[in-house]
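Example (one chain per record):
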Amino acid sequence: MSGIIESSDRIDVNESAYVTGTVTVGTSIVEAKVGVERLGNRQYLSIHNYGPNTIFVGPAGTTVATGRPLFVDQSIDIPIGNLAVYLVSEHANNTVVVQELG
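Predicted structure:
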């Protein structure tokens, strides 16, 4: 092989099902999704924190004490399927870019 690594992570991903958008994160939890509903056949979720503060990522009920920190200019890619992921911060007006792939 010439440096190509095959990965089963993306075998079932339909790359034509791809949406991206911004989400404002504050002190109340908000779902990481683009638009009113998450992509129906979503397989992967990508979140990038543009700041200006740390946000916290996790399941329903996530708080700043229980969520995984995502610092400014950090990203996380989650092979989550169509399960909900939530975001919260200690401060208002944080911008994240959410990308959903089906």
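Caption: Confidence is low (pLDDT under 50) at residues 1-7.
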